[in-house]
Amino acid sequence: MALFKRNKTWWTDFSVNGQRFRQSLGTTDWRAAISEEKKLIAQAQKGKLSVAGESFARLAFSEASERYLDSRKLELSDRSLKKERQLLVQPSSFFGTMPLRRITTENLLAYRESRAKRGTGPVYVNMEMGSIRRILKRAKRWHIVAEDIHPLKERGEVGRAMAHEEKIRLLRIAAARPEWQTARCAAVLALNTTMRGCELKGLRWCDVNLIDRILTVRHSKTEAGERTIPLNADAMAVVLELYRRAQTGGGTELSHYVFPACEHDRIDPTRSQTTWRTAWRNLTRAVHCPACNQLQSPAEKCRNEQCKIDIHEIKSPLAGLRFHDLRHHAITELAESQASDQTVMAIAGHVSSRMLALYSHVRLDAKRRALDALNNPGPMGGYGTNHDTNPALPQKIHSQVIEGYGRPVRARTADLHRVKVAL
Questions:
Q1: When comparing pLDDT for 17 and 405, which is higher?
Q2: Distance (Å, rounded) from C-alpha 299 to C-alpha 279?
Q3: pTM of this prediction?
Q4: Is-contact 226 218, C-beta < 8 A?
Q5: How far is the C-alpha of 194 from the C-alpha of 396, rounded, in Å?
């Protein structure tokens, strides 16, 4: 263990368990250097400091994030790696050339506040902070700030289940325009299979069995999501519609996608469609003019030249509906049906009843029906405590076993004699 100066800054050089550590203490004060050296030695003894980690900690955040992403290529799928890269765009822009070892609690809190001021939701901010945390952990720096950084509070609501009228409106509007037909087909399948958007986009014709009316989800968000789903009449009708459409473009090979990519009016069945976000946003925001009943996007005035009334206050009841909410709605309808929890989890791809409870939104009318069942009149014409809650006196007791504090015990002869006398 030794302290030495370099350019007026104190450095330390020590070894722990045969591993040598040599680095700057970042101070010109001798007493502060001694204190920092003791902290480093304690961290090294606990395994929180390593030569590789310290070398990584010297990198600028932007460079460290690129090395981090390269190291995770073997661990993550292409979709997950793409998402991780997207989560690091804003942190790399904010921290830039700042070395990882210089990032403090104040820096992290300042970044979080800047994202919140831009209107970024707490869920996405927490995801970005998760990526930052994984990088700092690799640099052996996260434990320094962990106690002061806590996740932002997220909304308890996880999704939205539509009313029956909203569901009818959604399907009717989605069928109104040709440019919305792909989004309509995807919506019908989601409502009748509980499939996620990513599962629909990755669906190939080899996954669809038209004879047995089933489809197989081979790639999903989780392992439990890999499942086989029977097709009901509505889902089967949409699958046949998509198949006939694929026949016109020669896209019915087993390796071709059910929802093929379409760019500049050219369909490429060898690539999957990446998004239907624009069509979904337009159809969920579309409103009807109360005067001429023309379907249109929200605006100040009706676009009908013969109408032109003020419609700026009219808002679609479907505004804000996410495509993923269709999965929530489907699971809700299954939860309200007579299907068992195991059946619902097998269809939806959940792994636990807790996850099922999180996704299902039993609506008020279903709760009301359940409570109304408690109002059924009893055998005496109504609910009565004496008749409905007190059990009837047993007429016969087994000669060998009686109940003692809820547990079967062998009766003694004297006990049986007292029971017979009481009867």
A1: 17
A2: 17
A3: 0.65
A4: yes
A5: 53
